[in-house]
């Protein structure tokens, strides 16, 4: 069994925020693979189903970003899910918009959602890092991540979420590198491989 956790803040006020790209990617996965219906469990909205023959629980924590680990830890312990079967989708300031990277373990780069999960669960889980770019000034990070995506960003944002959904089967079949490679090729085919070009479509 696998646990897919999207990170974000609950409620309509935050729905379009850059900080909520993890929710957006997981929502695309749920739609594509028909996970659901959503119901309230583990301090989250949760959906269950199968991807590539593997049982998956998709978790949208309602604890707010900084306490994401409480929800993820509760589901992990209930199902006895090993850490390397936990895959967290989150916003990444240190990647240009439209870029995606996956890694297991490592530092949290100041991301409070990851810090909370590490504190509650341990560190050796998978992170799908979804690039949102950096505002260029540390003092602007908070308003930037809690600001909504611009209409001009919709093209690459939808494509990145589609890539996560299209290739989620690679995550549950033990091929994270293939997930990343296929996502990169998909984004390239959509015209979003060069960070300088991400605003050109959509």
From TrEMBL:
<dbReference type="InterPro" id="IPR018171">
    <property type="entry name" value="Pept_tRNA_hydro_CS"/>
</dbReference>
<dbReference type="Pfam" id="PF01195">
    <property type="entry name" value="Pept_tRNA_hydro"/>
</dbReference>
<comment type="function">
    <text>Catalyzes the release of premature peptidyl moieties from peptidyl-tRNA molecules trapped in stalled 50S ribosomal subunits, and thus maintains levels of free tRNAs and 50S ribosomes.</text>
</comment>
<feature type="binding site">
    <location>
        <position position="66"/>
    </location>
    <ligand>
        <name>tRNA</name>
    </ligand>
</feature>
<dbReference type="GO" id="GO:0004045">
    <property type="term" value="F:peptidyl-tRNA hydrolase activity"/>
</dbReference>
<dbReference type="InterPro" id="IPR001328">
    <property type="entry name" value="Pept_tRNA_hydro"/>
</dbReference>
<keyword id="KW-0694">RNA-binding</keyword>
<comment type="subunit">
    <text>Monomer.</text>
</comment>
<feature type="binding site">
    <location>
        <position position="14"/>
    </location>
    <ligand>
        <name>tRNA</name>
    </ligand>
</feature>
<protein>
    <recommendedName>
        <fullName>Peptidyl-tRNA hydrolase</fullName>
        <ecNumber>3.1.1.29</ecNumber>
    </recommendedName>
</protein>
<comment type="similarity">
    <text>Belongs to the PTH family.</text>
</comment>
<keyword id="KW-0820">tRNA-binding</keyword>
<feature type="active site" description="Proton acceptor">
    <location>
        <position position="19"/>
    </location>
</feature>
<feature type="site" description="Stabilizes the basic form of H active site to accept a proton">
    <location>
        <position position="91"/>
    </location>
</feature>
<keyword id="KW-0963">Cytoplasm</keyword>
<keyword id="KW-0378">Hydrolase</keyword>
<feature type="binding site">
    <location>
        <position position="112"/>
    </location>
    <ligand>
        <name>tRNA</name>
    </ligand>
</feature>
<feature type="site" description="Discriminates between blocked and unblocked aminoacyl-tRNA">
    <location>
        <position position="9"/>
    </location>
</feature>
<dbReference type="InterPro" id="IPR036416">
    <property type="entry name" value="Pept_tRNA_hydro_sf"/>
</dbReference>
<feature type="binding site">
    <location>
        <position position="64"/>
    </location>
    <ligand>
        <name>tRNA</name>
    </ligand>
</feature>
<comment type="function">
    <text>Hydrolyzes ribosome-free peptidyl-tRNAs (with 1 or more amino acids incorporated), which drop off the ribosome during protein synthesis, or as a result of ribosome stalling.</text>
</comment>
């Amino acid at each position: 069994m696998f646990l897919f956790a999207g990170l974000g803040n609950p409620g309509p006020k935050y729905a379009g925020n850059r900080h909520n790209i993890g929710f957006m990617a997981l929502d695309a996965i749920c739609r594509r693979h028909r996970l659901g219906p959503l119901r309230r469990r583990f301090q989250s909205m949760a959906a269950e189903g199968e991807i590539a023959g593997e049982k998956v629980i998709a978790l949208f924590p309602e604890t707010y970003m900084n306490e994401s680990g409480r929800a993820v830890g509760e589901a992990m312990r209930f199902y006895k899910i090993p850490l390397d079967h936990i895959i967290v989708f989150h916003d990444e300031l240190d990647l240009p918009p439209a870029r995606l990277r996956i890694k297991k373990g490592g530092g949290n780069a100041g991301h409070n959602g990851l810090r909370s999960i590490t504190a509650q669960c341990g560190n050796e889980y998978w992170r799908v890092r979804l690039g949102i770019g950096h505002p260029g000034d540390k003092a602007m990070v908070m308003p930037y991540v809690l600001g909504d995506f611009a209409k001009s960003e919709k093209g690459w944002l939808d494509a990145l979420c589609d890539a996560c959904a299209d290739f989620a089967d690679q995550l549950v079949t033990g091929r994270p590198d293939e997930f990343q490679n296929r996502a990169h090729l998909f984004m390239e085919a959509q015209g979003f491989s060069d960070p300088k070009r991400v605003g050109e479509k959509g």
